Amino acid sequence: MGILVLISITAALALLDIAIKSTIEGYMTRKEERTACKGKLILRKVYNRGFCMELLEDRPETVKYASAYAAVLLTIYQLFTLMRKKRCVKKIGLSLMTAGAWSNTFDRWLRGYVIDYVGFQTKWKELTKLTFNLGDFFIGAGSFLVLLSTLFHDRKK
Question: Would you place residue 3 in the very low, low, confident or very high pLDDT band (cuts 50, 70, 90)?
């Protein structure tokens, strides 16, 4: 897959998540919940001032700078990987991770917090309370693809 295609996909996915967050910010209150998919999908607006699971929420400046630093390093690694031959799965994974990293970093720098908006109805109350955004899913899926790529690449050696 071409470098420009994957860079464009990265930018488009980051912008998509930013657009959804802006829509949620403008059209939902923090106490409001909406359901979809027969109640299994929950839309809500949650402000996360920390990392995943509100880690370091009491240190927003640390989170803000660490997020930017990680996004820059991830972007550099992605660009070097995109210039190499093969490793398509890893390239796609890094593109997803970079999109999610920049989307959440954008929120931290612009708003001072990340807007999370998607939860899932489960039989476990604590799991149902968890709220994510599309960028979080990009980071998770991308990490999984990079891990798979690494495992299968190492197995070939």
Answer: confident
Indicate whether 27 pLDDT > 70: yes
Output DSSP code: residue 35.
E
Q: Which residues is 43 bridged to in the sheet?
A: 34, 118
pLDDT over 70 at 23, yes or no? yes
- Give the Cβ contact number of residue 69 at 10 Å: 11
pLDDT digits 0-9 by tens, 68-104: 999 999 999 999 999 988 889 999 999 999 999 999 9
What one-character-per-residue DSSP string does 131-147 give? Answer: -B-HHHHHHHHHHHHHH
Q: Give dist(CA 134, CA 117) in Å, integer.
A: 8
What's the order of all strands across the beta sheet hosting 33-36? 33-36, 41-48, 114-120
Element (H, E) at 93: helix 88-110
| pTM higher than the cut 0.70 | yes
- The residues near 32 (Cβ < 8 Å, ≥ 6 apart) are 44, 45
Q: Which residues contact 143 (CB under 8 A, 6 or more apart)?
A: 93, 97
Helix/strand/coil for 114: strand
Instruction: Please state, in angstroms and rounded to a whole number, the distance separating the CA atoms of residues 154 and 150.
Output: 6
Structure tokens at 132: 């994510």
